Structures are given as C-alpha cells and as structure tokens.
Amino acid sequence: MTRAPKLLAVASAVDLDYRYGCTPAWWQLWKGLCEAGCDLIVTPYRGRAIESPWWRTEPNPCFREGELFAAARDATARLKGDRYLRRAEDSPEESAADRLVRQVIWRWVTPRWQRHLERILDRERDVDAVVVFTVPMSHLRGIPTALRERFGVPVVFYDGDVPMSLPEFGGMDTGFNYYHGADPGEYDLVVSNSEGGLPRLLELGARRAEAVFWGADPELFRPLRVDRQRDVFFYGYGDKFRRDWMRELVGEPSRLLPDVDFALGGRDFRGDVGAARLVGDVPYNAFPHAIAASRINLNVTRRSHATVAASSTARPFELAMAGAAIVSNPYEGVERWFEPGRELLVVSDAAEAAEAYRALLDDPGEAEALGARARERALDEHTYFHRAKRLLELVSAGAPSDPITVPVRG
User: Fold this and answer.
1) CA distances from 144 to 114, 182, 230, 245 (A)
2) In whole angstroms, what is the distance from residue 9 CA to residue 93 CA?
3) What is the rounded CA–CA span in Å between residue 144 and residue 187?
4) Where do the structural domains in the chain lie, given as residue ranges?
5) What is the DSSP string of 205-224?
6) In DSSP terms, which residues pair with 130 in a beta bridge?
7) Is-contact 409 383, C-beta < 8 A?
C-alpha cells in the first residue's frame, strides 16, 4: 500500500478573524489536499492553531510576540489618524523602522521558528515537503537551508499574492513587504498564483518558480435559492490598487442608474463609490449567501493583478462556482479561466458597465444562464482538488487519480 503524502504547512494565519485575504483560500486548498489523500500538518505564523477535519495542527511558537507586534502597529496607525500604516502603491521604499523590525525578528523570532520546525520534523520523520504559505519570506531567512541540510526535505514557498507582494507593489498595508531582506534562492521551489509573475520571481533569485492558480470549493460555493436583496454587489478588502476601477464599475454607474441598488461589502473604500450603500463585513461562511442574494456580482481586480498576465485572484473562481452573473473590469489573462461574453462579462468603462448591468437586470434568465455556464467551467477545471493535485505534483509528493470525497456537481 502506498503511503499517503505528508506535508508540513507553515501558514501566515489559520484564524479567519485576522481577515488576511489568502486565509479562506488556504482553508479550501488544504481541504483539497485532504481529499487528495494528503496527511497535512498546519502551524500558524500569526494567531492560534485552528483544528479542522482536514489537517492536524501544531502551535504557533511566537503567538505572544505576534500579537504584541500587531497591537503596537495598530496603535501607531491610530496615532497617525488611520487604521493602517499605509505604503505607497508604486515601489514603496523600505523605512528605517522596517529594517529595525526585521533585525529584531531575525534575532528572536527566526531562531524560535527554526527550533519549532526541527522538532516537528524530528518527530514526524517522513514529511515529504515543508510548504510556507505567504509568511513574509525574510522572516524565515536561513531556515530552508537548515532544514534541507539536516533533514533532506524540500522546502517550498507559496506566494498567493503575486504580483502585489513583489517589491514594486509592496503588498497590502496590513502586512509586510515579503521580499525585502529575503533570499528566494533558499527555497527548492517558489509557487505563485501568477503565471506572469514567474519571470520576476526568478529575477529576485528563485531557483525554480511555478504557477498554481486559485480556485473554489464546490461544496462551500454553490448556487443558493434565496431572495434577491440587491442588484449589483461587490465585496472586498478596500480599494488599494483598484480605486480607478471602483469608480468605473461602481461610482459612476450608480449615478447613471439611480434606480439600481448598488451595495459594497467590506471596508476601507477611500475612493469614489457614488451612491453605493455600505453593508460592512460579510462573514466568510455567509459569503455564498451574499453572492446568491445579489443579481449581479462584480469582480474588480486590483491593478497589480489585472495588468500582469494570468495573475489569479480567488474572487472570479468563487463567484463562478456560486453560479453568479459576473461583471469584471479588464483583467489580462482572465480568458485562461473563463470565456468573456459567455461565462462572464468584461467591461472597459462606466458606460459599458451601466449597459451590462441594465441588460442583465432586464433579462434575469440570461443572467442565470451566464452564471450556470461559469459554474460548469469552474467545476470542470477550477476546484481545489484540481489545485491540490497540481501542488502535490510540483512538490513530488504524488496524489491519487480520484478525490477521496467527490465534489457535489450541479
């Protein structure tokens, strides 16, 4: 009998309360790995370990340090009159404070994490690969080399935020610039959500870089029969890198179509959202219901992702799997996953957006058919079982040909 592949995952966070954009997607990918027969151990870099039916857990060895740092950063932002310590959107420079924080991390946090991972590998003995999921790469500097030399285990870095995480964009204001002070060449493989970002990762020093696109879990994201509560809906973590497109898909159309109900979920929208009403945060378990309760769902991709070819984000896959009628801003490479005009609509300005909204609202049957075609494509090509198999192949851990739990279709 073939032994199940075993992975040790070092995750940026597992607790959904932290509102990290990748965390819900990691949950779905890890579930997909379980369905592919993988024995997965997850240890979080921020927050506490969270038990689940799909993985085993190890604690965070620096939980207190992480919470104290986050509290200090939040307090500093409040003193400056804001919620976050914001960085420029174009080639943000590294500050003296950033360099000081990294030095402290290298002296205190990094050694503790190395000992923590060595203890796990010593105990488990047969781990096929260590995969680091969007932890700031520089914070673990030296650890991949040490683990490879002592245990002979490959170490993989999985960056789910390319190209936004690259130094020229600097990532979200809620996190770190991953690559300042980092050495991507320490890793056997760098996995990216972006095909167009692979050459840049090699420029930064990665020895090997491969793409694994985002997807969606068909049991979590499925069509629901609920009352429609809004006409046009967008949910997101703020409008950094997409302020212009928020104006074109939300702000201006809401003025052109005063009889249409526009709603925004999430927070930190600092640009033009016109007459759209704010509905606040949507808990992730309620997100499929929020999608289903909207006649049209928007995919407003950040400039960083929309302009670098085939830079996947989770949102179009989630919306498609839920059977939503999707309207998107221009997104280079979206045709790799969905056929524009048949499985989703792409609009280039406010006038086209308003025209698309009116057509879909006036023809609910066509809106439903658009969503049904998108879901069929997602089921065929974009489940997290598909992504889990791809990841296991890349780390040479192998995967069975069929899922242990067959996803529900329809």
Assistant:
1) 9, 12, 49, 40
2) 30
3) 6
4) 6-211, 230-382
5) T-S-EEE----B-TTTS---
6) 8, 155
7) no
Tokens of 251: 């702000």
pLDDT in tens, 159-185: 999 998 888 886 554 556 678 888 999
Tokens 């009116």, residue located: 358
What fold, for 6-211? Rossmann fold (3.40.50)
What's the mean pLDDT in 368-392? 98
What type of residue sits at position 339? Answer: E
Structure tokens at 118: 């060595």
According to DSSP, the β-strands at 277-280 and 262-267 are parallel
Query: In angstroms, how far apart are the furthest CA atoms of the chain?
Result: 66
What's the confidence (pLDDT) of residue 168?
A: 83
CATH class of 230-382: alpha beta
Q: Residue 237: is it exposed, middle or buried by C-beta count within 10 angstroms (0-12/13-18/19+)?
A: middle
pLDDT tens per residue across span 240-282: 789 999 999 999 999 999 999 999 999 889 889 999 999 988 9
On the CB side of 10, CA atoms within 13 Å amount to 28
Quick one: which of 123, 109, 98 has its CA closest to 60?
A: 109
